[in-house]
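Pilot study result, target chain (297 residues):
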Amino acid sequence: MPEMANVCLGALVRNNFEVAAVIPPPNSNPTAQGFIDYAKSFDLEVFEYYNNPNNSDLIEKIKSKKADIGVICSFDKLLKKEFLDSTKHGFINCHPSLLPNYRGANPYFHIINNNEKTSGVTLHFADEHFDTGNIIIQKGFSLLENETIGTLFSRCNFMIADLLVQVLSDLQEKGELKSCEQISGEFKKAPKISPDIKIDLNRENSEIDRLIRATNPFYCAFLIFRGVLLKVVSAEFEKQEHDFEIGLVVKSEGKELKIATKEGFMRPKIVQCGSWGFFDAEDFIKVFRINVGEFIK
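Predicted structure:
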């Protein structure tokens, strides 16, 4: 997700920091060109490369700029010491969790799916491992009641950009950045997830709700409808005892589609059915003529 890099780069330019050069994702990454075009819209020099950032040519280009510090946003490749030493003060990594909790590729999903009530962001010095370097600054916040991965992603991006401006301003003023080691121990992790995750209607309603919110809009929490993948973008839930079989459509009328779950009922509000596009519940019922008594599970 290169959007964090876009937000941070835009903030640095608006605040008149001198950006010596920009290093995009490798050209083998499908997101690279969009970020390259964005950087060039500011007339910034871009150091492109194909796959491995730890190559000597790229490192020498960075050294030639004699930059004070580098900034890393949403980068999924380990960087060697020679790369990290190519600027005067090293590199700051921007991470969307309160480290050392949720080290890894996708904190957003796991924070929501694990029902965290608070989270935050961290700026730390990059080292040769993922998300383990000395912490420069952190800022926490409370999660919204209906937080989605989309809203959390956006909030973190802009909070990180503001902190980055603050930290780099401190560096300009003081000539150094103070930091502290991360505490040791076992902490919650944030590994990559599958882009498609099957909804288990035998789980508690609250767990299903969190999974849907933790995937909306970047991933797909899905059920199967008439043999086709049905992405559930948003849904409401009702807790009620019943004797219906899990996944049974018990109501399909007007704007209300009710599907039996272990604890009660799920009422999908927005769905995407196969390649037919997105539908609210009313249009989904009309277009597909959903029948009471069929299964969506």
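One observation from the pilot: The domain at 3-174 is CATH 3.40.50.170 (Rossmann fold). A full batch analysis is planned for the follow-on phase.
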